[in-house]
Amino acid sequence: MNRPPKEPTDLSPRQARDRFLDKRSLENSEKTIRSYQNRLTQFVVWCEENGVDRVGDLSGWLLDEYERHLRASDNAPSTQKGKMTAVSQLVQYLEEIEAVEDGLSEKVHVPEVSRQEESSDKMLDTEDAKALLQYYRGSRGSFGTPDHVILEILWNTGCRLAAARGLDLGDYSSDHQYLDFRHRPDSGTPLKNDDQGERVVQISDPVCEAIDTYIRHERSGKRDDSRP
């Protein structure tokens, strides 16, 4: 095993990946760790092939170049998102140990997935969903964004995507922490089981925090009865 350098900025990308995985192994399953390893190894190899020998040399430019590399390699949009999410979490960890400049994680662009892909029949893997939630909850730039809020609602209520998108702001209670799923066919937001699908679902603090942030920042100045 390679000895760590005296300065954290001198960690090689491979050493940084291994330290990150060691830390994650304390709180994540083996399957999640394997997923992180697979996604980050491509980033490590790219760094080595492009002369990035120490993480202290990472910059917004290099991170953008890596994302361009993923797009040029014909990775599916969802695959690009997963790989860039892993890179973002790695960079957040490197910020914590002062191995990269503060704020570098905000320069990692995690691509959006189109609505068509979100609505596809392909299920999001459980470990991928957990990794995405962990990313969103720890990201200053992505916390409370529409994608984050939708994922929190889907994960914590088990509802369908159409039901989540059909929620009005009036269907949410921050004080009492619930979402009220209503069947509204006249407004184009029916539930699959019609009136029988109507229900009130209690939600946890992280979900409320995400929704409250979305309302506060994303929906400022918009009508209260409009939808995300």
TrEMBL record:
<dbReference type="InterPro" id="IPR013762">
    <property type="entry name" value="Integrase-like_cat_sf"/>
</dbReference>
<dbReference type="InterPro" id="IPR010998">
    <property type="entry name" value="Integrase_recombinase_N"/>
</dbReference>
<dbReference type="GO" id="GO:0015074">
    <property type="term" value="P:DNA integration"/>
</dbReference>
<feature type="region of interest" description="Disordered">
    <location>
        <begin position="1"/>
        <end position="24"/>
    </location>
</feature>
<dbReference type="InterPro" id="IPR002104">
    <property type="entry name" value="Integrase_catalytic"/>
</dbReference>
<feature type="domain" description="Tyr recombinase">
    <location>
        <begin position="119"/>
        <end position="228"/>
    </location>
</feature>
<protein>
    <submittedName>
        <fullName>XerD/XerC family integrase</fullName>
    </submittedName>
</protein>
<dbReference type="InterPro" id="IPR044068">
    <property type="entry name" value="CB"/>
</dbReference>
<dbReference type="InterPro" id="IPR011010">
    <property type="entry name" value="DNA_brk_join_enz"/>
</dbReference>
<keyword id="KW-0233">DNA recombination</keyword>
<dbReference type="GO" id="GO:0006310">
    <property type="term" value="P:DNA recombination"/>
</dbReference>
<dbReference type="GO" id="GO:0003677">
    <property type="term" value="F:DNA binding"/>
</dbReference>
<feature type="domain" description="Core-binding (CB)">
    <location>
        <begin position="11"/>
        <end position="95"/>
    </location>
</feature>
<keyword id="KW-0238">DNA-binding</keyword>
